[in-house]
Amino acid sequence: MGRIRRAVEPVESWVGRMREDVASARLRDPAARSGLEIALLYPGLHAIWAHRVSHALWTRGLRFPARLGSQLSRWLTGIEIHPAAQIGRRFFIDHGMGVVIGETAEIGDDVMLYHGVTLGGRTRDAGKRHPTLGNGVAVGAGAKILGPVTIGDRTVVGANAVVTKDSAADSVLVGIPAKARSRVAGEDTRALLTAPEYSI
Length: 200
Known about the structure:
Strand order of the largest sheet: 3-6-9-12-14-15
Number of strands: 15
Order of helices and strands: HHHHEEEEEEEEEEEEEEEH
Number of helices: 5
Helix content: 25-40%
Largest sheet: 6 strands, mixed
Strand content: 15-25%
């Protein structure tokens, strides 16, 4: 899987993306009651929307305002996303508190994170030092994915897993350190994220 590259989007497309984000949250969260409730009360969406502004500033070389915006968002939502992180479409953070996404993290489309997830680094060296998540990845509460690892498309990372190695597409990663197995055809992502045998 190659590195995910995103162009800076025109401002007029942002409203459409916000509507798409709300629809994605409604699809993934059984507790969601209305689009208005999601738009006003979901900190995960607010953090993503703030990140888009900060990321646009960052890509234009306005590094201090970008970092200032990301810190304000962190203070308001409890979710820390570095403005340089690259994030795809229909990204959803459920609950959100304590999520950390590092500077060189790359996230594909249709990715879902629960609270307490860290996409962190393991070195102070310059360059790529944070994870790349493929399309359709789901990461359970408290999981840590560390270093410049690549998590393949449609992989599920169990709650509290610690991932330090690459994974193939359609894997299930559980444990400390996380071990991989292939997903069984028809396995439900939500069930994998919440079943006791996939938690630590």
